[in-house]
Amino acid sequence: MPLGERSGDKESRYCGVETEFNDDMPQLLSHNLASAGFDFVVATLMDPAYRPSLMQKDSGGSGALPFAGSDLVLSPSQWSSHVVGKISSWIDLDSDDEILRMDSETTLKQEIAWASHLSLQACLLPTPKGTSCANYARCVNQILQGLNNMQLWLRIPLLKTDDDSMDVDSNNLVDSWELWNSFRMLCEHHSQLSIALDVLSSLPSANSLGRWFGESVRAAIINTDSFLTNARGYPCLSKRHQKLITGFFNHAIQIVISGKQVHSLPKGTTDLASNHNDSSSDGVQRHPLRPYLDYVGYLYQRMDPLPEQERFELGYRDFLQSPLQTFEKDAVKYIQYQRAICKALQDRVPDEKASMITTVLMVVGAGRGPLVRASLQAAEETGRKLKVFAVEKNPNAVVTLHSLVKIEGWENIVTIISCDMRHWDAPEKADILVSELLGSFGDNELSPEYTSFIQPVTASKLYNDVKLHKDVVHFETAYVVKLHNVARLAPTQPPTMKSNQRYKKLQFEIPSDTGSAMVHGFAGYFDATLYKDVHLGIEPSTATPNMFSWFAIFFPLRTPVFVCAGSSLEVHFWRCCGPTKVWYEWGVTSPCLSPIHNSNGRSLLGWAVGFLDSTY
Ligand SMILES: C[S@@+](CC[C@H](N)C(=O)[O-])C[C@H]1O[C@@H](n2cnc3c(N)ncnc32)[C@H](O)[C@@H]1O
């Protein structure tokens, strides 16, 4: 039973339970799913006592491996929807003991092959032991090459001590993200290798936790030891843990409860979030972990429903799109324009002369007319007289403009000019110029009034989606993305300059309490001053609320760059111009050198900035 659907949210949340070895799979499922309410079990697939090296000695048996039950005991859909395979936790592929190492490799491969045969959706790989994981990663990487679409969740404790002086060789992990990072780099960022985070009773700093939201975390395992006890004797979590779990829900990360019941609940009382009693009506003993599941369900249910705009944008999250769309339904955008035009009209014409002076206003790039409408509404609101030129180069939009002017009866005020503004010989000068030629990074059409911003991000999903294309062109293309599964690693910085040709070198400091991080690319935003204090923008710290016309832009890196805690990242952005096109080039120069991306605009896929004579 899923924890529940959030109103309007398409994704439902699932909660699993990590179980002990049990060779009666049907009983395991009925105990944990049907009677306790978990959605899936994380179950050991093979008898933990099994060691291949011992088997060979007493061979002569049936040859069948000691798997937990035959594949026939559950239906294929039960296996695939309700069981995550837990790979034997004793395996240690980097042990000095050769027999253990060999046994580990054989067992890992046998268990994964069995899990694939069962069509499981995921297997949980044990945490690498010690600090070296090269042989484990080599073996997993081999497996990944031939895997069906099963995910491998590498179990990583959520651990980062702030004491940098700690001795790394003493087997005390300083930052478990580094362990994950080594493993996934050895496996070449394989998209089927993801993370199951072991949430412990103490949590690292908020900045450091933030990093994980840019990685491919599929599950969070919470041990019952990490729960506190509330005044009524029920399990609950600290405020910081609650916030973290809410963050996991928001990123579709599944929760797994693990461990033993450590809270002895008061007898005869009802549960915190549900009304069932300690034992069900037929006298069957209730599941010892049920109060923990109820608490997680309660955290989920009490989340605020997503705002309407977020719901609308759900389907766009973390999908690479090509730019160029105009959302005429974005009321906020046009309200900002109208406010700016009102202010400009009032500044130009004092109240006492309002009926005598006519202001000439030009909408350059009028599209289907919403800015013409906003201009006329501003004139009405302020009581100013207006003469409007609506300039538009797209002949199809011009047809709409003509109908609009006729329907609205604007013939005496609005003149439609069907041409490219760059070639238009205007009959008079404009007092107010209105344009909306903005893209996510500010300058689809080289509009002058914006500021662009960039910041380095961890974005493993986006990186893997770009990589799928297996070519350089896609790594040298900028994408419009509703960023969600990303970690923003440093505050944004503006690369502003005056001419069409631009160049800026930027230095980003990665805060030391964040820990080291992987940079998969750069998020780009814009902010535009429409008039005086009226602005429009998507830069996260100043973004215009409730505006949905623009998502961020994402500039990928061909090879992700590792940046150490407390060190800096140096990046260069160029906007280059040729006779017929304008494009971006970008490259990292510290802590390592990346190639310069998109040299000569060779990878211009429709836009990046674009062709000077583009029409849409
Ligand atoms: C982002 S759309 C905005 C449309 C409209 N103002 C709105 O808010 O819905 C930009 C418009 O500018 C037009 N445009 C772009 N470059 C132009 C140019 N050089 N001359 C005239 N129109 C241009 C495009 O055809 C498009 O209709």
UniProtKB/TrEMBL annotation:
Belongs to the class I-like SAM-binding methyltransferase superfamily. Keywords: Methyltransferase, S-adenosyl-L-methionine, Transferase. The lineage of its organism: Eukaryota, Viridiplantae, Streptophyta, Embryophyta, Tracheophyta. Pfam families: PRMT5 (PF05185), PRMT5_TIM (PF17285). This is Protein arginine N-methyltransferase. GO terms for cellular component: cytosol; nucleus. GO terms for molecular function: protein-arginine N-methyltransferase activity. InterPro entries: Arg_MeTrfase, Arg_MeTrfase_PRMT5, EF_Hand_1_Ca_BS, PRMT5, PRMT5_TIM, SAM-dependent_MTases_sf. One of its GO terms (biological process) is methylation. The active site is at residues 436, 445. It comes from the Eukaryota. Residues 324-458 form the PRMT5 arginine-N-methyltransferase domain. S-adenosyl-L-methionine binds at residues 316, 333-334, 392, 420-421. Residues 37-302 form the PRMT5 TIM barrel domain. The record marks 327 as: Critical for specifying symmetric addition of methyl groups. The keyword Methyltransferase applies. It comes from Quercus rubra (Northern red oak).
